[in-house]
Specification:
Helix content is 59%, strand content 13%. It is an alpha/beta fold. A five-stranded parallel beta sheet has the order 2-3-1-4-5, sandwiched between helices. It binds adenosine monophosphate (AMP). The site of adenosine monophosphate has 16 residues, from helix 2 and helix 3.
């Protein structure tokens, strides 16, 4: 089983790019943000606890997202691997993920990061608020908090994965969505060529 992490600040385009990659390589796409929004929509206890934190631009506790991640791993046996989107977001989550995978005899294979500037984060989240109506995109204060949260708690993961020799970066502003997608596929193919060439269709054009 392969474990890939799609990394980047809010609004980098992780969710947009994840679909094409997971479909092409038979990976299960796990977005912790989407899972949390589903819990909120369903009115579960977990959703109620997460709602205020998400709308304040803060992170939910590590144990909450780690529980969701582990049960998704357990419930998806017939995939070639997983594409984690929005997880891990703290050094604690990264260390716990390493432990979780070690218990399964597995490891993180690679991290693909989509990088954009703070100014672009702000513009994209404001634009997305008008299209998707996400409460945490609409409010200027929340956006500011999410950018601060990203720099303080999530950005240190870049060094963590660089030190592990697993970090690969794509410029999320190299062109339009299609240009970024092509760049992602190019990087992806360079990472794990042997595995990806065995996946049906993986050697075809992007
Ligand atoms: P996203 O859709 O990835 O932008 O996530 C939306 C919000 O969900 C984030 O701003 C956090 O409040 C929460 N969230 C998503 N993933 C995580 C995570 N791995 N750890 C903590 N909070 C998370």
């Amino acid at each position: 089983m392969k474990y890939y992490i799609l990394f980047g600040p809010p609004g980098a385009g992780k969710g947009t790019q994840a679909g094409a990659i997971s479909a092409k390589y038979n990976l299960k796409h796990i977005s912790t943000g989407e899972l949390l929004r589903a819990e909120i929509a369903a009115g579960t206890e977990l959703g109620k606890q997460a709602k205020d934190l998400i709308e304040a631009g803060k992170l939910v506790p590590d144990s909450v997202v780690e529980g969701m991640i582990e049960s998704t791993f357990n419930n998806n046996k017939n995939v070639a691997g997983f594409l984690l989107d929005g997880f891990p977001r703290t050094l604690g989550q990264a260390a716990d993920l390493d432990e979780m995978l070690a218990r399964r005899g597995e490891k993180v294979n690679a991290v693909i990061s989509i990088m954009i500037k703070d100014e672009t984060i702000k513009n994209r989240l404001q634009h997305r608020a008008q299209i998707e109506g996400r409460a945490d995109d609409a409010n200027e204060e929340t956006i500011k908090n999410r950018i601060v949260t990203y720099h303080n708690q999530t950005e240190p993961l870049i060094t963590y994965y660089k030190n592990a020799g697993k970090y690969h970066e794509v410029d999320g502003e190299c062109g339009d969505i299609e240009d970024v997608r092509k760049e992602m596929f190019r990087v992806f193919k360079g990472i794990d060529r042997k595995f990806l060439e065995r996946v049906p269709g993986a050697s075809g054009s992007t």
